[in-house]
Amino acid sequence: MRNIVVKAVFIILAGLLSSCASSAPDESEAVNNVLDKAGHNRGELEKVLRHYSDDSLKLAAARWLIVNMPGHYSFDGPQVDMLDSIFRPLKSYAVNFSLDPEVVERWNSQSFADFTRKDHVRYIKADMLIRNIDMAFQEWQNRKWNHNLTFDEFCELLLPYTLGDARLSDWRTEYASHYRPKLDSAYSGDDVVEAASVLLRIIQSEGWIYNAQLITPHLDPSLLLDVRIGYNRDFIDMLVYAMRACGIPVAIDQLLISPDNKNSHKWIVVKDDETGRYIPFGVDSMEPNRNIHPHDGRKKGKVYRTTYARQNDHIKQFENIRSLPLRVVNPNIIDVSTEYFEPDSVKIHADSQGEDVYLALPVMDEWRPIDAGRKEGDSVTFYNYEAGVYYVPVIPKDNLFYPCGYPFFKSGNGQNIVLEPNVNKKVRIKMTRLMPMRPITLSRIISDMVGVVIEADTNEDFSNPDTILVVRDTIVDRRHRYAIPYPNKTYGYIRYTAAPGQQVSLAELEFYADKAETMNISYTVPDPVVERSGPQYLYDKNYESRFTIPVSDASFIMKLSRPTQIKSMRLTARNDGYFAVPGNEYRLYYLDGANGWINTGDSCMADKEGTLSFLVPENALLKLRDITDGLDYQVFTVQKGKACYAIDLGFYNLVK
Description:
The chain is of the alpha+beta class. The chain is 27% helix and 26% strand.
């Protein structure tokens, strides 16, 4: 009863405050400006305002949505309609959730510029907006865990009717109908962190099909709920729809560019009513935990939070720069790096002639700004960045960015290390990988492979098998070679058994009749059930494809083309494909500050094991280029003769 009274008093006070704010001349002018932009849709927005004329708090919420509506839009049209027919068939697949190459090519032949853009101020309907506001208020006022959630927090974390450029829809009704009964039957307490954890487990139990083959607008909420398919962004969208529909206040946090690869990445945060902190969770096995700040094992550099409201302070620092990518000047993000990293700053030399200087990540063959610096003469200061990440100060020129100083990073002892190459002292480096192996990739390899048992027999019934391999260590190279313990015995059948509790999942399995591996032994998988899983991926020489049997503790039998002795075996775990390709030619470059990338010398051809060897300047930031395929890869330094990527530098200044 006390909580109800407190809640009622809070709502009354919030209503009075919001009513006063709503009548402020500047906000009234802002509302009128948006109404003028609405054109023929002005009447729909005015209908919403009239509907709440006697409810000051809901009126304040409606005005807030309308004032911040410019810039929010959806893509529509027949191209977007195609996405349902493209993704829905994958729901029926057992494994290998891949789109037909022709479908991918047909989609990629289109341009977003050809899609129909619908600005919400001109298209949103009053009934939809009213229903969204009423349902959001219901969850805010009735959920026990929201009694400390302020009106401003409610507006950003529960109230928004849209995500990204997804089509307008009544997603809140659909998701509430699906998830609210499940959450209410599983949890009736007042702890928002526990509620988020329970709902996350419910959502995860329903499965998700990962597919990142297409670059699309945000998928329809109903498609996400029904088919449950897409990549990181799409899964996060679905989580937000579900959480907000059930009254759990969440936002989306993101790294704009990964220091470890060229991708962005998103997760969600829940506002903890007990500590007042935002707690990250939702992906990479992160569960909400108020006692330990969850960490996903990814380098981030800077972290930004997506907002519905326009963030004028954020975009003001970029107002004179026209060449910055949209991800940086996005008016609907705010810098929340200090929620993840201890506050910090660094002051470095920058060769600039009056230009603004930006903090950039060297990604492949580009410089990608993630923040602006503060100039003081020939120096620039950057604030609140992650330690253990390679950064470069850059300046804009002709719509591109160029280094204006040496790269740097902060070490574990808090020292800022400037990477000025010493061309008079060289070090040798040997490498097989082109990119760092992410911890999540390594953990998948461990779960897939450690504990795998491979047996051989002359009989199909395996009445007298020999164990020729038990995988006991992590496979971190591309094609791991194993010696056969009984090289002089003749076998006709091979049996592969998954690691305990795991599915069969591997990229390639090769057998050879000679130690030099010139005589490949072909085989078939006669089991018709296994045949549906695509055993051809076991021997297609494509080390990025994979063969999967989606049943725990599964096994399968291979029939050799003829009874023969096996002298050597190669096992390729499911991997990310970032290994040097035997026979391809590679070249290393070092970054010489404002002079840019400098060739270290002769190129190198990867040997048959995919090994590369180079002589490079000491204390240099390096970049590898595949000359054969025309690709650049992620930057690194040399530590103890090995490539040291940002992920290898460790995590130092994380908020506990």
